[in-house]
């Protein structure tokens, strides 16, 4: 099973991904937790490049292509081998993030991004995606106390576009994407996720 978590900055998706990882391990499953961009040594190097502040202007198309390069490393060298061995893979962000951030946020072609995603992943799609949805103002408040990367420093308008993009993607993929109210307590959110995964594991989905 390939499980992904999505959401804007401060949504709580990383916390929920970690909780699910721990729960699956405790229940005897072979599982790995990874992230995007990143997950392999090469992809982590690309992550540092993408998220670091730069004096030189960062072309939006260059940003997009770097995310795709990192995803290709990630899929080929970690995700697919793990899935082929019967391991459950949990990823903190995946291809939906690029549609939301570079597509809806930056305004790049959704058609082009979808095509590049298909190439970078060789058609691999998550079995289930949890979109932890919170208002942008709440998400930004949650990350106030930490050092922000280049993407987190974007305007509220940008992050609003990303959130709307995520919700649009979810509405177009209801069979795969489960939207969860991220303003609930951490325990309540995880209970909803746990029940969903438990049901799928029992049904062999």
Automatic annotation (TrEMBL):
Keywords: ATP-binding, Kinase, Nucleotide biosynthesis, Nucleotide-binding, Transferase. Phosphorylation of dTMP to form dTDP in both de novo and salvage pathways of dTTP synthesis. Pfam families: Thymidylate_kin. The keyword Nucleotide-binding applies. GO terms for biological process: dTDP biosynthetic process; dTTP biosynthetic process; dUDP biosynthetic process. This is Thymidylate kinase. GO terms for cellular component: cytosol. It is an enzyme of class 2 (transferase). Its EC number is 2.7.4.9. Residues 5-193 form the Thymidylate kinase-like domain. GO terms for molecular function: ATP binding; dTMP kinase activity. Belongs to the thymidylate kinase family. ATP binds at residues 7-14. It catalyses: dTMP + ATP = dTDP + ADP.
